[in-house]
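Review form for a predicted model. The reviewer records the input and the model, then writes brief findings.
Reviewer: anonymous (R2)
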Amino acid sequence: MLLLLLLLLLLLLLLLLLLLLLLLLLLLLLLLLLLLLLLLQLLLLLLLLLLLLLLLLLLLLLLLLLLLLLLLLLHHHHDHHHDHHHDHHHHHHHHHHLFYHVYYYYFYYYCHYYYFFYYYYYYYYYYYYYYYYYYYSTTTTTTTTTTTTTTTTTTTTTTITTTTTTTTTTTTTTPPPLPPPPFTAK
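Model under review:
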């Protein structure tokens, strides 16, 4: 029983390490995307972010399935091993209770991490959108050049007067306000 609990604890620690590694990878990819900000279109960057999020979710689902398979294998082995020493029915029932307890908590934390990633992805997207609008609104300048040429002709001399007027107007576009998140990460 103690051995099983230690194994479960070890598995959960490994899972947390994998989640931390995934988070670091995600942050590195986001930094790379920020560096490519001026080279990429907004839509293309959004599609890349969505793809990244989907990959992350697939990895998390894979981890969930692996943990469940390991738990089932351990559960089966443990039950089989203790058949001769204990009352089978009682042991089996107790073990099932532990298994569902662990599964419930793992599922709860998986949902928590999923919301955490979704929440930060959502905010990253809106801050990027804000930055994009701000950057392009401050660099948008309209330059109007008016050239007026006046020619005065007399019998002896020709006078050409050229007047150049340059008008530069900077237009600032205010982006729409940041909408509230669909839910708050707990």
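Findings: The CA atoms of residues 49 and 121 lie 8 Å apart.
Further findings: The two ends are 33 Å apart (CA to CA).
Recommendation: see findings above.
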